[in-house]
Amino acid sequence: MEFLLGGASSMCAVLFTNPLDVLKTRQQLEGELIAKQNLTKRSYRGIRQSILTVVRTDGLRGLQKGLPAALLFQFSMNSVRLGTYQTVDNLGWTKSANHPSLTPLLSVFWGGCAGLVSATASCPFYVVKIQLQAVTSGSYTARFQHHHSGTVSAFVNIYRQSGVRGLFRGYPASIARLVVGSAAEMASFSVCKQLFLHYQVFQESIVLTALASSTVAGFFTSVLMSPCDVVTTRMTNQAVSTNGKGLLYTNIFDCFLKIYRSEGIHGYYKGFVPMYLRVAPHTMLNLTFWEFFKGLHE
């Protein structure tokens, strides 16, 4: 039941936050490996222009591109991630009775472990989601677009081209992304929740406590996860050879290095604003729905 509650909460959240995820993906892929000073034309500069560009080229429906894949990704990822973390928490492994100072470190450790397991379960859905969100009918500055007609078509095309390995493209980067993001999110959420409950900041209100805790968790998640998120998007969307090998990046280290050399530190934080605007409310909605569903289940 813990796994189902985690998956259901994330699916509710992504219905509201997927448009920001589309904007984030487009911004991360724009001007790929081009120095900022050499990027003369940008279609996705800022939130307002990004929204207008998507609407003009793909219509209002463009803001929900890849939604079925996003729903599948969120369910597979968070059902495993939140379910694993909650199970470990129920067993008391995230707390140290003898050494209370170790509790935050245990939360980080088990949050990272939950992220590692969830990355494996959700990677194929993430690959499809990114490739669908990157496709546009308008002029676009991304190096490559995978023209899939839909979610099922994307799975079939990727499998035919590269086999199972194609569905796990960018897997090491995806692991890094979810381990860092999950550790930051779950640890900061748990610590803040305990503090708010201990000091009765919100008079033991489950909803208000979850909202405040997840707002803080969203901030730490965005800052720490952004570089890994950019790398995962780039590796997932790159063009591939006939034998399924990436034509732009050979591995996660090569991708990090090429981004730094071409775009500098700024490249690691492309799409940061829509990412934060997405991660903060998504974390807030996801963890709030999670707490709410757990309350109903109890």
TrEMBL record:
Localization of this protein: Mitochondrion inner membrane
Keywords: Membrane, Mitochondrion, Mitochondrion inner membrane, Repeat, Transmembrane, Transmembrane helix, Transport
Source organism of the structure: Anopheles quadriannulatus (Mosquito)
Family classification: Belongs to the mitochondrial carrier (TC 2.A.29) family.
Major location category of this protein: mitochondrion
Protein's recorded name: Mitochondrial carrier protein
Gene Ontology CC annotations of this record: mitochondrial inner membrane
UniProt repeat feature Solcar, residue ranges: 1-91, 102-195, 205-296
PANTHER family named among the record's database cross-references: RE38146P
